[in-house]
Amino acid sequence: xxxxxxxxxxxxxxVSSVGSLIKKKDLRIVDFKFNDLPGLWQHFSIPAQxxxxxxxxxxxxWTEGIGFDGSSIRGFQKIQESxxxxxxxxxxxxxxxxxxxxxxxIVCNVFDPINKEAYSRxxxxxxxxxxxxxxxxxxxxxxxxxxxYEFFLFDNVRYSQTVNEGFYSVDSVExxxxxxxxxxxxxxxxxxxxxxxFPVPPHDSxxxxxxxxxxxxxxxxxxxxxxxxxxxxxxxxxIDIRYNSLVKQADNCLMYKYIVKNxxxxxxxxxxxxPKPLFGDNGSGMHTHxxxxxxxxxxxxxxxxxxMISQTAKYYIGGLLTHANALMAFxxxxxxxxxxxxxxxxxxxxxxxxxxxxxxxxxIPMYTDNPKTKRIEFRPPDPTCNPYLSFSALLxxxxxxxKKKIDPGKPFEGNTYQLEGKAAKKLPTVPGSLEQAIDxxxxxxxxxxxxxxxxxxxxxxxxxxxxxxxxAVRLRPxxxxxxxxxxx
Length: 488
What we know:
Elements: H1 12-24, E1 29-35, E2 41-47, H2 48-52, H3 61-64, E3 66-69, E4 83-88, E5 94-95, E6 103-111, H4 123-137, E7 142-154, E8 156-161, E9 166-171, H5 207-219, E10 224-229, E11 236-241, E12 244-245, H6 246-266, E13 270-272, E14 286-294, E15 297-298, H7 311-322, H8 324-331, H9 337-340, E16 350-355, E17 360-364, E18 376-378, H10 387-404, H11 421-426, H12 434-443, H13 446-449, H14 456-474, H15 479-485
Parallel strand pairs: 1-6, 16-17
Antiparallel strand pairs: 1-2, 3-4, 4-6, 5-6, 7-11, 7-12, 7-13, 7-14, 8-9, 10-11, 14-15, 14-18, 17-18
Helix pairs in contact: 4-6, 4-10, 5-6, 6-10, 7-10, 8-10, 8-12, 12-14
């Protein structure tokens, strides 16, 4: 049954806390952020004094919200039903980490102004429903999420697509292709393909850049665990943040990308979370760690289980593997995603599970025997995903596995990258294209509709958006087609 959400209640203490922050930091602007369906933050701003004078949570902005045009947001309303309303979540209020003018940042929920209900296509609302649904099942009362974002920092990017021309060009001072470039002087130390993990500076030229980035993250309350250069040449990086509950972590993910992109620009660079910007080297993933807890106990831990995981965790894995093809429509939602998900580049294409094994789609980390840290890691997602949707979809698949007691079978202990012939063909794999993933979602999405977490409207809109992207790429000539066919 679909969940209904009324206008969120705001307490006097929360309103007072926001007002105090504005006054203490002498903030001049309040920036309202919300998420479009594909996963990009949208925003608009008002003078801080306008919000500061709203001291009563039962009136003004706090109860009436702020209107905007939903027809101009990807995946939202049609022109004849464009009016939408944002309601502020005061728990997300932080000083914006990148704005020059002192600015308060607040994440908002999207509502329909007519029926006063939360908007079905608001990704944050879907994530809130996923959290609520977990509790109604009685399985657990909280889930925790730890994404490992990878991204590239380039020094220059150019691309264009017209009726008679199509090209892209990215460059980095670290790129091995620049080993012979006259840089007046060229100081060498270019990172060879697949050797970026992880030599010290001067090979790693981005140590200080990443350090500045994580300091900004920490300022906003995002706990950072580690940062380092990643495997690929030309500025591939990874910053890992500490686990958190589903909605809070998805909020953190959007702030993470916001900080990375803006700090890169401050250093005269450009960040991309596109999974495969370079041919012939590793792409960027977003390995996603996850666990379910109940009453302060980690349900995924069992000291006597395989890899010290419980039967509940194994059923959860069974749900992930059973619905993996459909999940990829949300977890790897770009045509470019499937240029990363190919054998030979440490990409987890095989739908098996194993402990410590990075070639499996589901890995059981074995760094420690601490019950609190036991979790499973789903490795196929990439950073083009909307975390509100991908986390929610993964949780729903895992819950389905637990409810139906889906057996994931025996773990796979070998290196799937080295399998050949019949042995390789026996292993199930992720879809080979976005089109295959969308086809899978179209035929397998009932598990997402449970509890009204995802609605049919959201599924249909997502499929429509993605099929349009597929056609846009499919219909354009590819540069390599000229290499193959121009002289036929």
